[in-house]
Amino acid sequence: MSEPQGPGGGRRGGLTPAEFEAFLARLAPDRDKAGALYEDIRRRLVRLFALRHYETPEDLADEAIDRVARRLPGMEIRTSPFAYVCGVAHHVAQEMLRQRQRERRAFLVAAALATPSPEPDFDAERRSCLELCLQRLPGDQRRLILDYHQGNDRIHRRQILAHQLGISPNALRIRAHRIRRDLEDCCARCLAGGAASGGTQP
To answer: Sorting pLDDT into bands at 50, 70 and 90, what band is 135?
Structure first.
């Protein structure tokens, strides 16, 4: 059997070597058998995510296993290891979908003003609400959220933006998240018929 890929092996970078070894030990006393079980669990998770058309199925499988491994101290698993990890994987996938939806909405907010032609599925009502809510933002917040989502090399661009603002990349990410959340709330009210009457409260 091939050696299971642990920290430093290119796939288990989210765990320390000790956490990974503890996870293997909980799968089976014999390390070769534990390694085979680990590979089987990971392979089945990847296949499950792929069949459901999730993006990056391998990353999702690794994240699910990482979370289980970190919870191991003092934890009792009363079902099969795969069934337990599969349950955690479901939550990981739902989190990913919610995050993708938030990112998608934020991207559309930026696209509403940053591009001359909106995407085909960008209906007039939603575009109108997004533009209204953006205009209600203070100028500095509007520029930040648009700059945050523009460009192809977003990581580099956001590093530059954080430097320009004199804050850390993490502080920039938190600030952008708060603005995005306010925009989402404003757009939801607008689409529900409130015409963003309350405006945003960044």
So the answer is: confident
- Contact by Cβ (8 Å): 167, 148: no
C-alpha gyration radius of the chain: 22
33-42 mean pLDDT: 92
3-state secondary structure of 118: coil
Mind listing the domains of the chain with CATH numbers?
17-98 (1.10.1740), 123-194 (1.10.10)
Q: Pick 185 or 38 by higher pLDDT.
A: 38
Residue 115 has pLDDT above 70, yes or no: no
The residue among 143, 140, 139 whose CA lies nearest residue 109 is: 143
Residue type, 148: Y
Q: What is the pTM of this model?
A: 0.48
Helix (H, G, I), strand (E, B) or coil at 122: coil
**Count of CB atoms situated within 10 Å of the CB of 26:** 16
Exposure of 7 by Cβ count < 10 A (0-12 exposed, 13-18 middle, 19+ buried)?
A: middle
Taking the C-alpha atoms of residue 112 and residue 119, their distance in angstroms, rounded to an integer, is 9
H-assigned helices in 115-168: 124-136, 139-149, 154-165
3-state secondary structure 31-80: HHHHHHHHHHHHHHHHHHHHHCCCCCHHHHHHHHHHHHHHHCCCCCCCCC
